[in-house]
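Meet the record:
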Amino acid sequence: EHFFDSKSNEGYIAWKLKNMQRELHGGRRRSSTSRDPSSNRGPQFGRPVTAEHQLEGDLCREAISLLRHSTDESQIFLKMEQTFKHRQELIQDSEKCETILSVFPRFLDTKGLVVQDFQMMFGEEVSSKLMEKWGTSLKVKVIKEANNLTKTPVLESLIQSAEESPEGNDESTWDSDMAALLLLVYLLPPPPGGKKRPVKITVREALSHVVRFHKSCRNLQETTSSVQGRQPYILAVGTTRRTINDYYIVVDGQLIPCKAKSSISAFDELFKAHYVFGISYDQALHNMYTFVQTTIYNIDVGLCHESPRVKDLRAKLLN
């Protein structure tokens, strides 16, 4: 008892209890901060740069300056390649990540730079996955699964367009590939609303987070200025949804011209833009993009969090 003063509530026992509480609290804190970061794997995950011949210091600054004024496309691609590491450093800097398009404005007028940066991150084999897998069997399986869903007029129209049936061959509908890609949003719909997700959007609303149509006779800024948020989406410009002349990826309200001339290639660039600019997936499309990431591009398979819906759809499509 001489170790403990009952009046002052001090002594060895009190000291021991305080130490135990401190250790327990510290343990909880350490376990929470040292938690496996796999759930954060995705577009914003910092990845090591293995590219060679990267410029630094004054040479890097000179290259960035040259990029602003050069009209030689081969030089633009070369200097963008040589400044890739610097770009990745900016993207990982929370205070500078949103300046990428002002520091490297050639993204806004030179087609193919998004694809080049993605290839530098993951290699050509990974970069070509969507184009390899989509037409061989994946598209057919997506359409088959969508046919098992409860039909709505919009879903029915997308299925008909994807199947290229006469009923779906309407000028107001998307082409077969785009329609089939949008079926993924129905198969992996936006998560339900809740405390963490106060705003619930419908699947139909989520479709416009993937692609928007813009009639070629109208001002492009009319569409881009009305959309809030950083998350990229496709702007398809043409006379009808089936007759598209140009595709753009919209990021921060700015237009990045696609190298693509087809809807499937435009979606390929849309997905890659998330990684090139380090932008998180749209919350409403998180399951869909995670599926595309792990099942199609095979990026971070087993290293990122996947919802049961994503796992279930992958099991169905890969069997």
